[in-house]
Specification:
A hairpin with a 5-residue loop joins β1 (14-16) and β2. The chain has helices spanning 2-11, 41-55, 104-118, and strands spanning 14-16, 22-24, 32-37, 57-62, 67-72, 75-83, 89-96. It is globular, with a radius of gyration of 15 Å. It is of the alpha+beta class. The longest helix is centred in the middle third of the chain and has 15 residues, at 41-55. The chain has a single domain, classed as Kinase associated domain 1, KA1 (TATA-Binding Protein, 2-Layer Sandwich), CATH 3.30.310.80. α2 (41-55) crosses α3.
């Protein structure tokens, strides 16, 4: 019985990152902010890269699926840019503390900075 409870706890403690990865943390809490813009994926990606570089340290960049991972203080930020339509692109910003807790305030702030960077 104890083993079954432990397995349930372990399996429920993972969340999916915006780029498709899985990490340990609290899975059922909101951690992602979406922004849609009438801009190309390249323009949005460049703005997001500039914002992440300004606010923290870029850890990895994947141009195949247009995603980035950065550290802002002790929080890990996952970001992905994708086309929604022929003229509309979206950015997904996901932030998690080092203990796996969501930081939706940081996600929101970074998404706003990306919007301002596009102007």
């Amino acid at each position: 019985m104890m083993v079954l409870g432990l397995c349930g706890l372990i399996l429920s403690g993972c969340y999916t990152t915006v780029d498709g990865g899985r990490k340990a943390g609290v899975p059922w809490m909101k951690d992602t902010i979406e922004g849609r813009y009438e801009r190309s994926v390249e323009d949005l990606y460049s703005a997001a890269l500039e914002v992440l570089s300004f606010n923290g340290t870029l850890v990895s960049e994947n141009r195949i699926n247009n995603s980035m991972v950065a550290k802002v203080d002790t929080t890990t930020v996952y970001l992905q840019v994708e086309a929604v339509g022929p003229t509309i692109s979206r950015v997904l910003v996901q932030s998690r503390t080092r203990f796996g807790q969501p930081d939706v305030d940081l996600s929101s702030e970074l998404e706003k900075q990306i919007a301002l960077q596009l102007k």
